[in-house]
DNA sequence: TTGATTGTTACCGG
DNA sequence: TCCGGTAACAATCA
């Protein structure tokens, strides 16, 4: 279940799953994370998320950089471990648990400059306390590109995915085609705050939930009730038709009435 | 087997 | 430089 929350949850898990003595690397499909062998037998000291990027820090000073992309999965299980399922790019083991990373877009070892380069091209992470929203607003305020593009541009601000994009803009009553330049600071602040709130909820619940009633009720709802308009035909607020859009090749939705076309 | 998918990047043209 | 479009890549499930 990508789109941020899996990653964020992983990085913010109260109980780090990588406390083990031996870090083993497995490659059932014949594909290794580049340089992964170097980490064999070394401890992971910390795991941290920067937007949708995961960084496992090792005692050797190396960084394992993982991006799950659309399909990547992190599978945790208790030992004794079973045979890796599917395309496991790296397997990490503690005394008690095994963690497989399946099908990530990125699974590589970075040195310090490599990590610095990565962080330099990622915008402020909505979920990080050290994030600087001013950086995101500066980019948005001088851009002619539509806000629907900008808030999902991970170099502008990091964390929002395709579903959150549609849902957040609907919640704010902003059409995705509104140019960045037309977004003032007040609106941006509302956008940032809403993204922060929803993503935090996603981390906690391990599910994307953007419907207020569902948020108030707590717990995890059936998928159909978790979104307001993503994939929907009618707007829950005004009962009008939901427009299907295409933003940079990804589907998006908007309500013509609640989100007036600029 | 096919199509769709919560993502990213490189490259090109206007 | 900025911005939009396209293709490529990835693994899984229905």
Provide an overview of this structure.
- There is one protein chain.
- The chain is an alpha+beta fold.
- The chain has 2 domains: 5-120, MutM-like, N-terminal (N-terminal domain of MutM-like DNA repair proteins), CATH 3.20.190; 133-255, Helicase, Ruva Protein, domain 3, CATH 1.10.8.50.
- Helices cover 26% and strands 20% of the residues.
- It is built from 7 helices and 9 strands, in the order H-E-E-E-E-E-E-E-H-H-H-H-H-H-E-E.
- It has helices at 5-12, 112-120, 133-141, 147-150, 162-172, 185-205, 212-217; strands spanning 44-50, 53-58, 63-67, 73-78, 88-93, 97-102, 106-110, 242-247, 250-255.
- A 4-stranded antiparallel β-sheet has the order 1-2-3-7.
- A hairpin with a 2-residue loop joins strand 8 and strand 9.
- The longest helix has 21 residues, at 185-205.
- The radius of gyration is 20 Å and the shape is globular.
- The two termini are 33 Å apart.
- Mean pLDDT is 81; it is low at 1-32.
- It binds a DNA duplex (14 and 14 nucleotides) through residues 1-6, 52, 67-73, 86-87, 102-106, 143-145, 149, 152, 154, 161-164, 208, 230, 248-251.
């Amino acid at each position: 279940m990508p789109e941020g929350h899996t990653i964020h949850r992983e990085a913010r898990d109260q109980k780090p799953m990588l406390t083990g003595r031996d870090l083993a690397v497995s490659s059932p499909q014949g594909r290794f994370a580049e340089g992964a062998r170097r980490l064999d037998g070394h401890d992971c000291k910390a795991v941290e998320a920067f937007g949708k990027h995961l960084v496992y820090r090792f005692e050797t000073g190396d960084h394992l950089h993982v991006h799950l992309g659309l399909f990547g999965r992190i599978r945790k299980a208790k030992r004794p471990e079973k045979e890796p399922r599917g395309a496991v790019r790296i397997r990490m083991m503690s005394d008690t648990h095994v963690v497989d990373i399946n099908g990530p877009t990125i699974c590589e070892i970075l040195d310090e400059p490599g990590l610095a380069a990565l962080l330099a091209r990622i915008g402020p992470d909505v979920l990080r306390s050290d994030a600087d929203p001013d950086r995101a607003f500066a980019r948005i305020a001088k851009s002619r590109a539509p806000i629907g593009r900008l808030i999902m541009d991970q170099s502008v601000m990091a964390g929002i995915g395709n579903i959150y994009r549609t849902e957040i803009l609907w919640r704010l009553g902003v059409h995705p085609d509104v140019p960045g330049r037309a977004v003032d600071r007040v609106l941006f602040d509302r956008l940032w705050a809403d993204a922060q709130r929803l993503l935090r909820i996603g981390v906690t619940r391990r599910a994307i939930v953007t419907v207020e009633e569902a948020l108030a009720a707590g717990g995890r709802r059936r998928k159909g009730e978790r979104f307001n308009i993503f994939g929907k035909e009618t707007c829950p607020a005004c009962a009008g038709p939901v427009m299907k859009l295409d933003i940079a090749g990804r589907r998006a939705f908007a309500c013509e009435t609640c989100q007036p076309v600029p």
